[in-house]
Design brief:
The protein contains 5 helices and no strands. The longest helix has 31 residues. It has one domain: Fumarate Reductase Cytochrome B subunit (Up-down Bundle). It is elongated, with a radius of gyration of 19 Å. The two termini are 25 Å apart. The chain is mainly alpha-helical and 175 residues long.
Amino acid sequence: MTSSRYTAFRYTTRQVAVHWLAAAAVIFLLLTGTFVLEALPNDAQKIGNLRIHLLVGALAGLLVIVRIALRRRHPIAPAQPGDRILRLGHLALNVAVLLMAFSGATLALQSGLLEAVFGSGVLPSDFKAYTPRTVHGLVAKLAMGLVALHVVAALYHQFVLRDGLLGRMRPGRGA
């Protein structure tokens, strides 16, 4: 049974583009932060990876802010039963990404990372000595869980409920 409840509403092309760019950036950051940066010693070879992480992290934070602004400009479909959980999930993802960006920026400022990456400073021997690093790591784990839940929920809607939810997030002409 296919419902047109979700397919009748489409996000704009800008909203879809920003969503997928933000998703790609967040997934890249979570994977490289966990499996690349965490494993590297704090030496000169790590600086290039940190530079990319900082720039993509800033982009991810900016994209979430743009997503929020676009959401305010282009109202979403009227609420249906069960949508409260969906909207809370989106809110939690947005907050997690913004907390990651804020804690990452705070860590960069406190640890001298900006000078090391974009100037001639040196990396601290251990980022874990800084409280924002602890926050950054904990929120990263939360974000991974939220991303996984988001993907599972989308797939559940698409393939179990068959309600066309993913149709409103595919590239193409939107409203």
